[in-house]
Amino acid sequence: MFLAYLLAVSVTATATGFDGPESAYWDAPSRSWYISNVAGKEDEKDGRGWISRLDASGKVLEHRWVDGLNSPHGIRVRGDLLFVSDIDELVVIDIPRARIRTRLEAPGAKFLNDVAIGPAGEVYVSDTIGNAIYRCARACEVFVRSEKLECPNGLLVEGRRLLVAAWGTITDPVTFGTSTPGRLLAVDLKTKKIEALGNGKPLGNLDGLEKSGADYLVTDFTAGKLLRVSKSGAVTVVKDGFKDSADIGYDGARGIVALPEMSAGAVQFLRLGK
């Protein structure tokens, strides 16, 4: 059951001029927001994609901070490295030098999407169409592949488990149409056991996933909603009316969410109430 608008939320800034912004990420050490721009078709290796860098307030500093990507999606940072998924590769970017350091192929990947960093620095990447999650260190290999992943999208490591925001069972890979909406799942990093989080009820076509206090912030891409989900599965609609609400970034210290509106070419910056 959805309980709407129980949290105060205000828009602090709107950044525009992007081309298919898919993912946002806040990196506190560099005081920067990073935004991935798909630019072309999501499944084409056309070299048109890039990463933008914004300041803490949401002002664009470098529109094409790093280019030469194809269809960049999920972003995570560890130390001086930025990791971004790109169709069937994990691209590693050197932040201080603002250039691509290396590309790690994910053999057999069909549509790499979100990225998460594990406790030992390993990188997990979801393959939404392939119903798989890859684990990357020196190379990428399949960590788990199962229909129980329900077409995984957003990823977040929490302790010894990997949380998954599932898109839902895809029946049409072209339109990403689903037979069943997605929900939040948890994968044990040791046993690889997959189970539902909370009450396990379907939520929507889930995309971004971040933790806020004891709860989770999740986007429903198709419905254009930002949701807050408790560990028991209770859902609050924080804000709706977005045009394709994609993979969010979150600055927990300030309570700021960066929400890319993919079809609108914009990123909304929202301050969450307490």
Widest sheet: strand ordering = 1-24-23-22-21
N-end to C-end Cα span: 21 Å
User: What fraction, in percent, of the residue positions are helical?
Assistant: under 10%
Report mean pLDDT, rounded to a whole number: 95
Secondary-structure element string: EEEEEEEEEEEEEEEEEEEEEEEEEEE
Q: What summary fits the major beta sheet?
A: 5 strands, mixed
> What form results from the Cα inertia axes?
globular
Strand content: over 45%
Would you report the number of β strands?
Answer: 27
Tally the helices: what do you get?
0
Decide which structural class fits the backbone.
Answer: mainly beta
What value does the Rg take, in angstroms? 17 Å
Ranges where pLDDT stays below 50 over 5 or more residues in a row are 1-6
Write out key terms for the chains shown.
274 residues; mainly beta; 5-stranded mixed sheet; 4-stranded antiparallel sheet
